[in-house]
């Protein structure tokens, strides 16, 4: 028997065109999902609203997290707000530099600027606030002068921890923005440089940020017999997690034959597509310690999808290597599952090899218990 389709025509002024509600498969699109959520909330269609929220959670990225946070506050969707904050905290600089940031409302702006767990330099927050202020001047149909930007920012400006900037960031950025008064600029310069620091109207304590967590996938490391060699080949491993995390970088083994410098290229892929890559250097002191290398920005990793972590090292050939590898590792509230990668041409696998550590931001047991 075919499913009955019920059409309900609705006309109202705050959503474009006439709408209809029908019983069928829900098909949502990025361009219309917010309007659909609004209509579902207004006309009390909870199942449709739930599907809209799930769609938004899946499509959540640093590019749209701030704008979705603003909307989720209006729609009173606490679960979506929590997911937005996870992304904003971990990928704060990317979120603040996104195009949608300037379109958030003032309460959301103050919530972001006062956030203790942001992983972000204060100069990025300052620049983002100025961009928002310029857009707000346009919305209020006033000239975007320094005076008007200061006016629309109001008390939000004092949530930025300007004293926690680097001196060069302040001198070349905030001090020349025209937003600060002469007295504020003088006091802040003295705060940076003088022994007897004047009081300032901006918070002086750095943000706490997020705590890095590390997944160790080997139970021991070794050298001497069957020594591992870095030969410019690819060491890679596939992994999957049961909760959304943000990969910050990898821990790698160094030289087993004395101190050495390494050039390293790291990548993170999903279905063969490169999500992030970084070329950097590190110094190995010849010990069995791991050495951490990082991506430019944390990389969002979704649950129940396999990703590929890869590294290519150029330096001293002989190195430590991991052994007694584990196919499943739980760190805090996150469980990792490892699988051999077909891209690994240097012998790394689940049981042994390289890339002993994945460094990440993610939910903790304390947060999960709340």
Give a description of the structure.
This protein has helices spanning 33-42, 46-58, 65-75, 78-90, 92-96, 106-113, 122-139, 146-153, 167-172, 182-193, 365-369; strands at 8-10, 19-21, 213-216, 218-222, 228-229, 235-241, 245-253, 260-270, 273-284, 290-301, 307-314, 318-319, 321-325, 328-331, 334-340, 357-361. With 370 residues, it is of the alpha+beta class. It folds into 3 domains: 8-58, Potassium Channel Kv1.1, Chain A; 90-193, Alpha Horseshoe (Serine Threonine Protein Phosphatase 5, Tetratricopeptide repeat); 213-369, Sandwich (Jelly Rolls). A hairpin with a 2-residue loop joins strand 14 and strand 15 (334-340). Helix 3 runs antiparallel to helix 4 and helix 7 crosses helix 8. It is flat, with a radius of gyration of 25 Å. 35% of the residues are buried.
Total beta-strand segments: 16
Q: What's the N-to-C terminus distance?
A: 47 Å
Q: Nearest-angstrom radius of gyration?
A: 25 Å
Sketch the topology as an H/E string, one letter per element.
Answer: EEHHHHHHHHHHEEEEEEEEEEEEEEH
| Percent helix | 25-40%
CATH class of the largest domain: Mainly Beta
The H-level CATH homologous superfamily of the largest domain, spelled out, is PHR domain
The largest sheet has its strands arranged as 9-8-11-6-15-14
Instruction: List the domain count as a whole number.
Output: 3
| CATH fold assignment of the largest domain | Jelly Rolls
Concise structural overview:
By secondary structure, this protein is of the alpha+beta class. It has helices at residues 33-42, 46-58, 65-75, 78-90, 92-96, 106-113, 122-139, 146-153, 167-172, 182-193, 365-369, and strands at residues 8-10, 19-21, 213-216, 218-222, 228-229, 235-241, 245-253, 260-270, 273-284, 290-301, 307-314, 318-319, 321-325, 328-331, 334-340, 357-361.
């Amino acid at each position: 028997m075919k499913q009955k389709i019920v059409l309900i025509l609705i006309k109202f002024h705050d959503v474009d065109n006439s709408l209809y509600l029908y019983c069928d498969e829900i098909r949502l699109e990025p361009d219309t999902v917010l309007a659909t959520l609004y209509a579902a909330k207004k006309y009390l269609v909870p199942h449709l609203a739930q599907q809209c929220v799930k769609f938004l959670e899946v499509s959540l990225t640093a590019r749209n997290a701030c704008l979705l946070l603003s909307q989720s506050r209006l729609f009173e969707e606490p679960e979506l707000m929590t997911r937005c904050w996870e992304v904003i905290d971990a990928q704060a600089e990317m979120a603040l530099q996104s195009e949608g940031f300037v379109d958030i409302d003032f309460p959301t702006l103050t919530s972001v600027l006062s956030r203790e767990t942001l992983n972000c330099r204060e100069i990025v927050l300052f620049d983002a606030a100025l961009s928002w202020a310029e857009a707000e001047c346009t919305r209020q149909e006033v000239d975007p002068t320094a005076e008007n930007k200061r006016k629309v920012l109001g008390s939000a400006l004092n949530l930025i921890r300007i004293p926690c900037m680097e001196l060069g960031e302040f001198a070349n950025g905030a001090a020349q923005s025209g937003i600060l008064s002469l007295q504020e600029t003088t006091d802040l310069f003295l705060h940076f440089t003088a022994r007897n620091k004047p009081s300032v109207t901006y918070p002086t304590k750095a943000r706490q940020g997020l705590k890095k967590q590390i997944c160790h996938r080997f139970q021991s490391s070794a050298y001497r017999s069957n020594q591992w060699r870095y030969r410019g080949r690819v060491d890679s491993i596939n992994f999957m997690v049961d909760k959304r995390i943000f990969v910050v970088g990898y821990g790698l083994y160094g030289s087993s034959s004395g101190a050495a410098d390494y050039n390293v290229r790291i990548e993170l892929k999903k279905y063969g597509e490169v999500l992030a890559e970084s070329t950097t250097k590190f110094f190995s002191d010849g010990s069995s310690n791991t050495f951490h290398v990082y991506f430019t920005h944390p990389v969002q990793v979704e649950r129940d999808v396999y990703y590929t972590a890869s590294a290519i090292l150029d330096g001293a050939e002989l190195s430590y290597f991991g052994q007694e590898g584990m196919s499943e590792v739980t760190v805090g509230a996150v469980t990792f599952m490892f699988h051999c990668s077909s891209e690994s041409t240097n012998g790394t696998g689940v049981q042994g090899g390289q890339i002993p550590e994945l460094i990440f931001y993610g939910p903790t047991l304390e947060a999960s218990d709340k």
